[in-house]
UniProtKB/TrEMBL annotation:
Organism superkingdom: Bacteria
Source lineage: Bacteria, Pseudomonadati, Pseudomonadota, Gammaproteobacteria, Oceanospirillales
Keywords: Signal
PANTHER family hit by this protein: POLYSACCHARIDE EXPORT PROTEIN GFCE-RELATED
Domain Polysaccharide export protein N-terminal per the UniProt entry, residue ranges: 99-172
Name the UniProt record assigns to this protein: Polysaccharide biosynthesis/export family protein
């Protein structure tokens, strides 16, 4: 391999040429993919990627879209878009009716102040005919006027009688309360009090909100004398903040229509909702406009019923824009794009950037051949890799071992009081051990360098390649009195280093000492010669006389040590 034999030449390789070199050499190296050590082959498996794909795809359904995640909400639990409006406190926010757009109605009271040639201060009611009566002036019609028009009308009436040296001030002091009927598909139909300026949402909230199963958020009619004077779409308010503000009169009726076609949207969205579509909006592009997709969504899975039978389709986002929709359709948005490149991270002793964008089929050796390293300080024989899929498999294997330990020993019965007492002690030990062991996070270390040979495996997105520096030290950790890092001395044995760290602790298992190499390889201390950069890891002894239990826990301890390079206390 070039990295091992031509380090000095690689030092002069231009980092900018990495991408071109890798593209040119990747295809030629694919034939070497099978040249992998058995240990490496066992760890990564040849079907890692296919296993990941099978977990996401339903190959038996006739469509190749991603399935709904187990964490997705159940269909029956998905609420209509807009239902969150009535989780707030609109019913407690009654308006005072005194706004610039308010139009005066019979029963309102207005303040009139006149000074100058004549002095007058009155609170005048608006009578049933829509007039206010001003002494010495007579009736003035003000019904239907807003504040500005009302002020102008009163000034004009006063100056028609007192044309000079007269000043006029007007104010709407209070509005007549109204009662509005709220009916249709609401939770509590009834007659509710408010002011003419209160919003539609205020009255709907008084009635308990719109029925989640039947009510429409897009067709809410305001009836006056049996005629629709306004139709309100709450989606305008939810999406754009626009709200129609009719001025209510006593006896008006709010009618919530039955919900029209609705479509359930889930998958890669910020939140799953049931969206209601108007007649002229029943196409995919409108649904895309309404839903809040996560970044990277590329495909849509559509399930529904048509006259010809069940329909299932898997469309690109562009194809879905023109797809007609019907009531009851289920839409699953999916980030299902396969990129042509992967991103690989490099750490340790090398020249160049820390991340590289590479072709999906690039091989490890080809990539390493394009990385320049410092010639005299880099340990090219101890290269290792961290891979997310390996960490996931290590974690799953550890969890399975802990479940097996728990089910085997915690559920066992006892035949005598003495045995029961022992079982209690063992249960405490097991529970304590499981609690600590379950917190272990495997690092996903993949051993790719053994016996000065680097396996030529295909890189995956997210791989982290470690190129370590040569080390002059050795670490002693685990169950020793003084865990420490010391300078490596040729000829010293494992026991010599342990004695230098204060010897074994009282919890140490002297027969379980591991050597962890810089490349991630873990070996038994009796089966390897120490070298600089190694870590001596002393495992704890299981405090139980139950040989079967001790064996099970010891195996899990060994498993954790390999996956994390950390000893779990008992």
């Amino acid at each position: 391999m070039k990295l091992l034999s031509k380090v000095s030449v690689l030092k002069n390789v231009a980092i900018a040429a990495v991408g071109l070199f890798v593209f040119g050499s990747a295809c030629a190296a694919i034939g070497n993919a099978g040249d992998i050590d058995p240990a490496v082959q066992q760890l990564i498996g040849s079907d890692t990627e296919s296993l990941q794909v099978q977990q996401k795809v339903n190959w038996q359904s006739g469509t190749y879209g991603q399935l709904i995640s187990p964490d997705s909400p159940l269909i029956d639990e998905i609420r209509p878009f807009g239902s969150q409006l009535f989780d707030g406190g609109f019913r407690g926010l009654r308006a005072d009716g005194l706004n610039s757009d308010y139009r005066i109605a019979p029963g309102d009271q207005v303040v009139l102040r006149i000074w100058g040639a004549i002095e007058m201060e009155k609170v005048l009611p608006v009578d049933a005919r829509g007039n206010v009566f001003i002494p010495s002036i007579g009736p003035v019609t003000v019904q239907g006027l807003n504040n500005k028009a009302f002020d102008n009308r009163i000034r004009s009436a006063v100056r028609s009688v007192y044309p000079e040296n007269v000043h006029v001030y007007t104010q709407v002091q209070g509005v007549q309360p109204v009662a509005v009927f709220v009916t249709g598909y609401v939770v509590r139909p009834g007659r509710y009090a408010g002011t003419p300026s209160d919003s539609v949402i205020y009255y709907l909230d008084q009635a308990g909100g719109i029925d989640d199963n039947l009510g429409s958020y897009r067709v809410i009619n305001v009836l006056r004398n049996g005629k629709v004077i306004e139709s309100i779409d709450l989606y305008d308010f939810l999406l754009q903040g626009a709200m129609s503000r009719p001025q209510f009169r006593d006896g008006d009726t709010l009618v919530v229509a039955e919900r029209a076609a609705s479509v359930i949207v889930s998958g890669d969205v910020e939140r799953s909702y049931r969206y209601e579509l108007a007649k002229n909006e029943r196409v995919g592009s409108e649904l895309i406009r309404l839903s809040r997709m996560k970044a990277g969504v590329s495909h849509v899975l559509l399930r529904g019923d048509r006259d010809g039978g069940p329909l299932t389709g898997y469309f690109s986002l562009q194809e879905f824009n023109s797809q007609p929709l019907q009531d009851g359709d289920e839409i699953l948005l999916s980030a299902d794009k396969r990129y042509d490149t992967i991103v690989v991270e490099v750490e340790g002793s090398y020249y160049g950037p820390s991340r590289y964008s590479l072709p999906r089929d690039v091989m490890l050796q080809d990539f390493l051949d394009a990385i320049a390293v410092p010639q005299h300080i880099t340990d090219t024989s101890s290269i290792s890799m961290r891979r997310e899929s390996v960490a996931m498999r290590q974690k799953a294997s550890l969890e399975e071992s802990l479940k097996r330990l728990e089910s085997t020993y915690l559920g066992a019965s006892s035949s005598t009081p003495q045995e029961a007492s022992i079982r209690v002690q063992e249960a405490e030990l097991i529970n304590k051990f499981i609690a600590r062991a379950s917190k272990a996070e495997p690092n996903g270390r993949l051993v790719v360098a053994t016996h000065d040979h680097i396996a030529n495996i295909r890189l995956q997105d997210g791989d982290v390649i470690t190129i370590p520096e040569k080390s002059d030290s050795l670490l002693i950790s685990g169950e020793v009195l003084v865990p420490q890092s010391v300078v490596f001395e040729t000829g010293k044995s494992v026991r010599d280093y342990i004695d230098g760290a204060g010897g074994f602790s009282q919890h140490a298992d002297k027969s379980k000492v591991l050597i962890v190499r810089q490349n991630g390889e873990v070996r038994d201390a009796d089966d390897v010669a120490l070298k600089a950069g190694d870590e001596i890891l002393v495992l704890p002894e299981v405090p139980t006389k139950n040989l079967q239990l001790a064996t099970s826990i010891s195996q899990i301890l060994y498993q954790i040590a390999i996956a994390t390079k950390v000893v779990t206390d008992l």
